[in-house]
């Protein structure tokens, strides 16, 4: 019962302190709002980076071109072997007829090429397997596997005309590099920005409590227990977090709506607003939890300095 | 108002108090060869032995820097002695656990020259805080706070903030806070240092009244007229040493 009474009193004093120290609360809430904005910005940034990178990765594939006289059985053998590899994400088959139709479609404004095609009696194009790896760095391994199949002259391998990996190699390597670097850079930026803003918020709350250091001393002398002294400050800290969290979540609505169009022009398909709308529960949880934890922990540590026993 | 009475029989008069304490064969407060050396190597208090019985009114006098404040702070463990020990109700302050120390602090009321009220709390809340800390119920708090404010003549200022009160009024609030838990001892460290003569007189009268109701009072001051008007036991300190201890003393320095 006494615990309940104490909790009630601590909560009430926390709320009263939050309201009465209006300017201090305002300062703490504004800094915390900035911190949480940076945090939400970083969340959106990393989501944008992830989605853009996934899309870039999906644009890359390796094509296996078969000879025009390759039998269906040989092609499906190769397809099965590829699908059995752990690195392979998907293999899609393009038949000779499909390849021809695609070729015609691509060159429909190029009369000369179409005419040349008409001259030929037979379809000059072979069937193709488009292979997509789970990771861009795995294309090399897949290409090597196809090479050995081709050179060892197994029945399936002998049907392979060529593999276009080596023509694309430099492009794929460079893309792999870019993706790795941007992921690493993104992590570093997130960590540094996150740390910096957390430190600023922490120091602001410490400064706010510094103004109450005499008060903490008086509470000590009157015989208040540690939790009874630090409780109201921690409640106020949690309130800073909740209020600034709500402000940030509200501000994100117009901001994402406004930036999503220009951002989409730059990043391709990533839509900041639909990300905000679809991941709202997740964003809500992260922002609120960070705000509350930051407020409570900062208050706890700040009061500890002035508690002498 | 349930007045702060501890031992009515022992508290009424000095000689009765002395006899009572002898009968119980112990002293309420006992400084046993206490020395305090601060970090700078300066001796704030040197080899002081002092015994105070329940119900006494002891004035501790001396120039600034004589060690009065240090001596008093050692009683509620804001300062720990370098040598020797301080006993409160036969318990050594230095050996108390954290929670025991808190309960001792609640049993000692304190008043300071600079009042030390909580600036963001109303007068009511300032006094209620001391009761809450002692674990009193909301009903008790609602009943006790107005009573104690009446006792110091500030019932009408209940909802003001400390900054809205004069120095004398703030000190009376501090006294109300100090006695509301009915402490065994009231420590007053230069309580009149910031007050004009009229307020000083009021504060001293309140302290005498509290003492008459049975609470032991330790008053540190360098104000000659206060000490002479109280006319009770006077302990004189100089440069950290106890140089006089008079039963019915005057300010001599």
Spatial order of the strands in the main sheet of chain A? 2-3-1-4
* Strand line-up of the largest beta sheet of chain B: 6-7-8-3-9-10
Looking at the overall shape, the CATH architecture of chain B is 3-Layer(aba) Sandwich
Q: Which two chains form the greatest contact, residue counts included? A: A-B, 22 and 27 residues
The residue-averaged pLDDT of chain A reads 84
Low-confidence stretches of chain A: none
> What is the global morphology of chain B?
globular
Instruction: Report the helical percentage of chain B.
Output: 25-40%
Strand content of chain A: 5-15%
CATH topology of chain B: Rossmann fold
Report the principal-axis shape of chain A: elongated
SS element count, helices of chain B: 9
Strand-pairing-aware structural class of chain B: alpha/beta
- Share of helix among residues of chain A? over 70%
N-to-C SSE series of chain B? HHEEEHEEHEHHHEHEHEE
Number of domains of chain B: 1
Structural class of chain A: alpha+beta
- Strand tally of chain B is 10
Order of helices and strands of chain A: HHEHEHHEHEHHHHH
Biggest pleated-sheet summary of chain B: 6 strands, mixed
Brief account:
The complex is a heterodimer of chains A (309) and B (253). Chain A has 309 residues and is of the alpha+beta class.
Key phrases:
heterodimer; A: 309 residues; alpha+beta; four-stranded antiparallel β-sheet; elongated; B: six-stranded mixed β-sheet; 9 helices
Describe this structure in words.
Chain A has 309 residues and is an alpha+beta fold. Chain A has two domains: 2-56 and 176-306, no CATH class; 60-168, Alpha-Beta Plaits (2-Layer Sandwich). Chain A is built from eleven helices and four strands; from the N terminus they run H-H-E-H-E-H-H-E-H-E-H-H-H-H-H. Chain A has a four-stranded antiparallel β-sheet with strand order 2-3-1-4. In chain A, helix 1 crosses helix 9 and helix 2 crosses helix 11. Chain A starts with a helix and ends with a helix. The relative contact order of chain A is 0.16. In chain B, helix 8 (197-212) links the parallel strand 7 and strand 8 (216-221). In chain B, helix 5 runs parallel beside helix 7 (167-179) and helix 7 runs parallel beside helix 8. Chain B is globular, with a radius of gyration of 18 Å. The chains are: A alpha+beta (309), B alpha/beta (253). The A-B interface holds A 2, 5, 9, 16-17, 20-21, 212, 214-215, 217-225, 228, 308-309 and B 76-78, 98-99, 101-106, 110, 116-121, 129-130, 132-135, 137-138, 177.
């Amino acid at each position: 019962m006494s615990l309940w009474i104490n909790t009630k009193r601590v909560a009430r004093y926390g709320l009263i302190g939050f309201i009465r120290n209006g300017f201090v609360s305002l300062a703490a809430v504004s800094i915390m709002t900035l911190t949480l904005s940076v945090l939400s910005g970083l969340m959106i940034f990393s989501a944008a980076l992830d989605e853009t990178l996934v899309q870039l990765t999906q644009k890359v594939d390796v094509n296996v071109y078969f000879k025009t006289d390759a039998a269906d059985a040989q092609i499906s053998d190769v397809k099965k072997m590829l699908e059995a590899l752990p690195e392979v994400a998907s293999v899609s088959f393009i038949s000779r007829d499909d390849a021809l139709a695609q070729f015609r479609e691509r060159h429909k404004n190029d009369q000369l090429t179409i005419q040349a095609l008409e001259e030929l009696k037979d379809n000059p194009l072979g069937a193709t397997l488009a292979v997509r790896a789970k990771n861009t760095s795995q294309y090399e391994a897949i290409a090597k596997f196809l090479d050995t199949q081709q050179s060892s002259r197994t029945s399936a391998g002998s049907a392979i005309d060529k593999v276009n990996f080596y023509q694309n190699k430099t492009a794929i390597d460079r893309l792999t590099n870019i993706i790795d670097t941007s992921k690493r850079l993104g992590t570093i930026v997130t960590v540094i920005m996150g740390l910096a803003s957390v430190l600023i918020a922490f120091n602001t709350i410490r400064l706010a409590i510094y103004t109450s250091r005499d008060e903490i001393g008086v509470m000590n002398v009157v015989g208040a227990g540690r939790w009874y002294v630090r409780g109201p400050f921690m409640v106020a800290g949690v309130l800073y977090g909740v209020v600034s969290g709500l402000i940030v979540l509200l501000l994100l609505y117009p901001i994402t709506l406004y930036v999503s169009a220009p951002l989409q022009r730059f990043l391709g398909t990533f839509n900041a607003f639909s990300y905000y709308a679809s991941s709202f529960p997740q964003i809500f949880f992260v922002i609120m939890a960070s705000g509350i934890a930051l407020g409570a922990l900062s208050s706890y540590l700040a009061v500890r300095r002035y508690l002498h026993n | 108002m349930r007045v702060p009475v501890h031992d009515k029989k022992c508290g009424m008069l000095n000689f009765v108090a002395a006899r009572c304490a002898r009968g119980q064969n112990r002293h309420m407060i006992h400084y046993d060869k206490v020395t305090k050396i601060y970090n700078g190597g300066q001796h704030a208090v040197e080899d002081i032995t002092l015994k105070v019985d329940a119900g006494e009114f002891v004035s501790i006098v001396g120039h600034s820097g004589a060690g009065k404040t240090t001596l008093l702070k050692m009683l509620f463990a804001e300062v720990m002695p370098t040598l020797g020990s301080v006993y409160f109700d036969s318990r050594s302050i230095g050996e108390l656990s954290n929670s025991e120390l808190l309960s001792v602090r609640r049993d000692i009321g304190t008043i300071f020259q600079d009042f030390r009220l909580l600036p963001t709390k109303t007068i009511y809340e300032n006094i209620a805080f001391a009761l809450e800390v002692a674990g009193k119920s909301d009903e008790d708090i609602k009943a006790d706070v107005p009573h104690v404010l009446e006792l110091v003549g500030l019932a009408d200022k209940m909802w003001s903030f400390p900054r809205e009160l004069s120095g004398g009024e703030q000190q009376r609030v501090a006294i109300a806070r100090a006695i509301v838990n009915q402490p065994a001892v009231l420590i007053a460290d230069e309580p009149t240092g910031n007050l004009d003569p009229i307020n000083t007189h009021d504060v001293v009268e309140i302290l005498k009244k509290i003492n008459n109701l049975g609470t032991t009072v330790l008053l540190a001051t360098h104000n000659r007229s206060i000490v002479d008007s109280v006319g009770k036991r006077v302990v004189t300190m100089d440069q950290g040493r106890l140089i006089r201890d008079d039963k019915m003393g005057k300010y001599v320095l």
